[in-house]
C-alpha cells in the first residue's frame, strides 16, 4: 500500500473511532467537527479506492484532489508568482505591461536599464543616427489599391487583425470596432463574417471571406454572389480579404467550438448549433492559383472596385511562386497580400499545427517581398504583415523586412483587458473577451475599452514614428532589412537578410538566378496547381556565400 492508502485506513478505523468517542463523551462543536472530518474523509477515500477510474485517486485517496486543485491554477501561479518579466510565452510580462500601459495612457517607460541579454544569439536591434528626423504627416498613411482598383483605401500603419464574432464576444467586437473608428485604422472581421456588432459603430472594416464563406454562402454552403455584393457595397466595408490559411494553424480550417455557438452566431454564419464549426482547410473557390485570382477579380467587380486581396501563411516557397506565376499568366493581381506568421495566435488549434507548421512572419514577409520584386509585381501589390506585434519595434521590424503595414490581434485583445489566461477555447474567458457567455461578456464596457484600443494604437504609432526618426529617416517606407541588426552565434552583429541577397526587379522571370533555390522553385511551380513537391535541399546561406566568394577569388586569380 502507498502511504496515503495507509493514512486512509488509519483515519477510517482509529480516526472514526476516536472521533465518535470524543463526541459521545464530551460533545460540543469541536468533537462534532472532528467526527465530521473523519467520516467525510472515509466516504471520499472509499469512493476513490473502490470506484474511481483515476489511478492517482486509487493510490492516493482524497489527497489526489489537492493535486487537481493546484493544477487547475498552474497557469495563474506561474504567471503571477514564478515567471520573470521576460520569460513567458507567447507574450511575456514586459510585453503585456507595455500594452496595458499604452492602452491606459499611463507612463510606459522603464527604470534602471534593460532586463534583456543584449548578447543573446539572434537578438534584434537597430543602429540609430546622430541626425534624428521627424516623420512627415503625409507619410503616415499607406494607399492600398492596384491598377484595377477603383476605390483605393488609405490605411494606417497599424491595424486590428482578424478576430471573428463567435470567437470573441459581441461587446469585444464592438469595443474593437469603435476603437478602430477613434484611432483611424481598419478592423478585420475575421472569417466569421461582418456581424451587426462589427457594423454598429461605423469603424472601417476589412471583410474576411474564409473557407466557410460565412456571410456570403447559400443553404448548401456554396458562394452566394448576391449576398456578397449586398454586404461588400456597404460604405463601411473598405476592403475584402480572402483567407487561404492562418499562421496559428496553417493547413487547417478555422474552429469554433460548439460551446460558443449561439443561435445568433448560427444565424449569421448559416451553420448548425449541435457540432463544432470547422471550416474546410481549402477555400472551395480557390482550389488552384488561377482560380484564386479569378475569385479576386470576381469579388473586386462585385464590390464595385474595392481593394481585394488574400491572406496566407507561407509554407513551401514554390507554392507562393505558383501564385506569382498565375498572376503573370492571367494578368490579374490582388490589391494586397497579408502574410500571417507561424507565431500567430488563435482561439483553438491542434498543438502540432501551431508549434510546427509555417514560416514565421519576418521570414514570410522577406520571402514574399523578394518574390514579388523578382517577378516584377511588387509595385502593384501592398504587403501586410500579421504576427505577434506588441511594441513599436515589432512594428518596425516587419515593415523593414518588406511589409507596407501591420495587423495585430492578440495585443489588441490585451488592450481590451485580456490577461493571457489561455482559456479562449473553453468559453470561460475571465475577462469577457473570448467567450459567448452573456454573464461574462456583459462585464466588458464598450466605451471604456474602445478608448484603450485607441490609446494603444496611438501610443504605439507615436513610439514607432519616433523610432524611425531616431534612425535618421523621415518616412517609414525607407526602412530596409539591412537596418535590422541580428546578433550572430559568434557574438557579432550582422544585418538581417544579409546572407540572402535581395532580388532585383524581374530577376526571377529573366532567369538571372540559375543554380539558386529561387530558380528551382520557379521551374517547379505551375499556375494550374498549388501543390509543389518539396525537393530542393536547403543549405545554410553562409555556405553559398563562401562558394560565391571562392569562385570570385579564382576568377580574379
TrEMBL record:
Organism: Shewanella loihica (strain ATCC BAA-1088 / PV-4)
Alphabetical keyword list: Membrane, Transmembrane, Transmembrane helix
Protein name, as recorded: Ferredoxin-dependent glutamate synthase
Species classification: Bacteria, Pseudomonadati, Pseudomonadota, Gammaproteobacteria, Alteromonadales
GO biological process: glutamate biosynthetic process
MF GO annotations: glutamate synthase activity
Domain Glutamate synthase residue range list: 156-473
InterPro entries per the UniProt record, alphabetical: Aldolase_TIM, GltB, Glu_synthdom
PANTHER family (alphabetical): ARCHAEAL-TYPE GLUTAMATE SYNTHASE [NADPH]
Membrane-spanning segments: 30-50
Amino acid at each position: 500500500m502507498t502511504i496515503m492508502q495507509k493514512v486512509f485506513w488509519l483515519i477510517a478505523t482509529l480516526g472514526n473511532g476516536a472521533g465518535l468517542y470524543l463526541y459521545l463523551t464530551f460533545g460540543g462543536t469541536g468533537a462534532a467537527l472532528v467526527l465530521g472530518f473523519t467520516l467525510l474523509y472515509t466516504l471520499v477515500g472509499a469512493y476513490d479506492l473502490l470506484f474511481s477510474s483515476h489511478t492517482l485517486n486509487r493510490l492516493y485517496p482524497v489527497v489526489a484532489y489537492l493535486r487537481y486543485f493546484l493544477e487547475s491554477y498552474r497557469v495563474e501561479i506561474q504567471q503571477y508568482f514564478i515567471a520573470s518579466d521576460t520569460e513567458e510565452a507567447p507574450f511575456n510580462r514586459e510585453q503585456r505591461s507595455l500594452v496595458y500601459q499604452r492602452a491606459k495612457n499611463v507612463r510606459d517607460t522603464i527604470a534602471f536599464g534593460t532586463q534583456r541579454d543584449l548578447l543573446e544569439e539572434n537578438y534584434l536591434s537597430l543602429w540609430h543616427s546622430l541626425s534624428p528626423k521627424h516623420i512627415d504627416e503625409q507619410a503616415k498613411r499607406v494607399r492600398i489599391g492596384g491598377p484595377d482598383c477603383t476605390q483605393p483605401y488609405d490605411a494606417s500603419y497599424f491595424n486590428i487583425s482578424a478576430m471573428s464574432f463567435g470567437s470573441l464576444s459581441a461587446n469585444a467586437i464592438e469595443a474593437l470596432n469603435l476603437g478602430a473608428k477613434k484611432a483611424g485604422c481598419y478592423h478585420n472581421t475575421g472569417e466569421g463574417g461582418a456581424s451587426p456588432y462589427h457594423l454598429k459603430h461605423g469603424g472601417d472594416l476589412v471583410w474576411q471571406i474564409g473557407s466557410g464563406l460565412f456571410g456570403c454562402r447559400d443553404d448548401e454552403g456554396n458562394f452566394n454572389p448576391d449576398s456578397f455584393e449586398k454586404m461588400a457595397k456597404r460604405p463601411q466595408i473598405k476592403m475584402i480579404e480572402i483567407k487561404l490559411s492562418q499562421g496559428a494553424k496553417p493547413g487547417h480550417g478555422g474552429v469554433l467550438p460548439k460551446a460558443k455557438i449561439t443561435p445568433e452566431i448560427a444565424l449569421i454564419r448559416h451553420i448548425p448549433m449541435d457540432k463544432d464549426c470547422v471550416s474546410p482547410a481549402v477555400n472551395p473557390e480557390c482550389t488552384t492559383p488561377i482560380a484564386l485570382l479569378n475569385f479576386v477579380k470576381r469579388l473586386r467587380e462585385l464590390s464595385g472596385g474595392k481593394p481585394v486581396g488574400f491572406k496566407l501563411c507561407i509554407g513551401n516557397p514554390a507554392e507562393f511562386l505558383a501564385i506569382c506565376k498565375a498572376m503573370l499568366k492571367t494578368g490579374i493581381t490582388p490589391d494586397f497580400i497579408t502574410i500571417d506568421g507561424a507565431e500567430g495566435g488563435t482561439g483553438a488549434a491542434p498543438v502540432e499545427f501551431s508549434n510546427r507548421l509555417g514560416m514565421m512572419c519576418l521570414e514570410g514577409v522577406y520571402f514574399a517581398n523578394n518574390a514579388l520584386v523578382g517577378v516584377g509585381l511588387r509595385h502593384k501589390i501592398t504587403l501586410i504583415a500579421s504576427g505577434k506585434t506588441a511594441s513599436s519595434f515589432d512594428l518596425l521590424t516587419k515593415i523593414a523586412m518588406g511589409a507596407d503595414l501591420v495587423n495585430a490581434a492578440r495585443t489588441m485583445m490585451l488592450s481590451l483587458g485580456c490577461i493571457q489566461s489561455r482559456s479562449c477555447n473553453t468559453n470561460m474567458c475571465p475577462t469577457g473577451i473570448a467567450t459567448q457567455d452573456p454573464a461574462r461578456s456583459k462585464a466588458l464596457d464598450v466605451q471604456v475599452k474602445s478608448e484603450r484600443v485607441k490609446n494603444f494604437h496611438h501610443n504605439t504609432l507615436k513610439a514607432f514614428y519616433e523610432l524611425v526618426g531616431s534612425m535618421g529617416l523621415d518616412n517609414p517606407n525607407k526602412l530596409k532589412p539591412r537596418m535590422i541588426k541580428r546578433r550572430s552565434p559568434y557574438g557579432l552583429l550582422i544585418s538581417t537578410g544579409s546572407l540572402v541577397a535581395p532580388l532585383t526587379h524581374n530577376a526571377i522571370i529573366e532567369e538571372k538566378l540559375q543554380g539558386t533555390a529561387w530558380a528551382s522553385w520557379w521551374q517547379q511551380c505551375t499556375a494550374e496547381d498549388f501543390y509543389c513537391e518539396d525537393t530542393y535541399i536547403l543549405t545554410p546561406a553562409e555556405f553559398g556565400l563562401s562558394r560565391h566568394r571562392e569562385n570570385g577569388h579564382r576568377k580574379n586569380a
